[in-house]
Amino acid sequence: MKKRTLESSIYTDVDRDSDYTAYLQLDALLNAQHPLSDPPHHDEMLFIIQHQVTELWIKLIIHEVEAAMRCIRQDDIPPAVKHLARVKHIQNQTYNQWTVLDTLTPSEYAQFRHVFGKASGFQSPQYRLLEFLLGNKSRTYMSVYEKQTEWLKRLQAALDAPGLFDEFMRYLARNGYPIPQHVTERDFSRVRDDDAEVVAVLKGIYENTREHWANYEMCEALMDVANNFQFWRFHHMKTVERIIGHKRGSGGSSGVAFLKKALDAEFFPELITVRTEIGNLSE
Known about the structure:
Blueprint: H1 20-23, H2 26-30, H3 44-73, H4 77-101, H5 106-110, H6 125-133, H7 149-160, H8 164-174, H9 181-184, H10 196-207, H11 213-244, H12 256-262, H13 270-277
Helix pairs in contact: 3-4, 3-6, 3-8, 4-11, 6-7, 10-13, 11-12
């Protein structure tokens, strides 16, 4: 092997408060894994790291989605599309992670599953916040976070505020598109039904892309995020099915049956409905 010498310009005398370890707070990050099985089961480390890394990716997705929403509120669509394009790639990382957890066999998981008691990914406040930002809202989830004061406050704010698609609708209305007021001014804590007038506006965008190019790109960026979220949900469900079959899930859920129901919750459903209308010669 060819020997590589250290370049003389590279910093070697670095202070412990300003080096790579300090900047990334690696001491805290790498010491945040505490298996509870006794003796520690080899595969519990995989399970913990898998979920911690997912939480980090979700944190970054939230960061990008909230940035996209700020851009939309400023009527600045191109950078909003860029933020959502990044979200799509982050989602690919979270999706591909499932293949690592797929290496955990039922017999291995059964040896340490009991140690996390009532804990479940369903309880993740970040995951719930992301669902709220993307429009899947329900007050029934809030009781899970009553003992987490700061998260409860943040989730309540997201529940009551316009979500990502709501902000896009409000942007379209501000810019002369005939989005009805009952869509743009409403109780945003409730999931609304599909609206024919919204679908008509989206159809106009899709059937005249040159005139509405920026908004067309935004529609497709939203569709990418929605689809990738569903891919993630589906692989999550299949991974759980592969490891525990149809046992009850962690946290008291029905397990696979509970995860299958989540697949029925589509984000931005009018972007799917409009696909039925585009080029429909029967009209």
